[in-house]
Design a protein that fits this description.
globular, mainly alpha
Length: 126
């Protein structure tokens, strides 16, 4: 188990993860894959890898089979995700679309997929 790891997507603690991390490891809170480029210490933050021998990965947010994967000790937090949501909301407002709700610490914190499903159900009266 490792108490220093946090989910790259939602910032939740990954204390129950056994190292070396399995390719199928998921966040217990948001179910995001964890054996991903964004979670690796070799990830350059721009979509690429600092390991020259690693193969190119097309989706840095999906689980991969990289042999050079080493979990980053970086603490990811929801603030980073909130900034991205704020930017998307501003872009949506620019085109006259409805603003996305902000993340909160309560049970209303939903993934974008869950928010879209909730909005669709409300529109259909369900």
């Amino acid at each position: 188990m490792n108490d220093s790891l946090t989910c790259w997507k939602c910032g939740a603690g990954l204390g129950n993860v056994i190292l070396p991390m399995s390719r199928r490891e998921e966040c217990p809170q948001c179910a995001a894959d964890q054996h991903v480029c964004k979670m690796c210490e070799e990830y350059d933050g721009k979509g690429g890898c600092n390991e020259p021998r690693a193969e190119q990965v097309s989706d840095t947010e999906k689980a991969n089979f990289c042999d050079y994967f080493s979990p980053s000790g970086k603490h990811f937090n929801v603030v980073t995700n909130q900034k991205a949501l704020d930017a998307k909301a501003q872009l949506a407002a620019l085109f006259g679309e409805e603003l996305a709700p902000k993340l909160t610490d309560n049970a209303e914190s939903l993934t974008p997929t869950e928010l879209a499903e909730k909005k669709l159900r409300e529109m259909l009266g369900g």
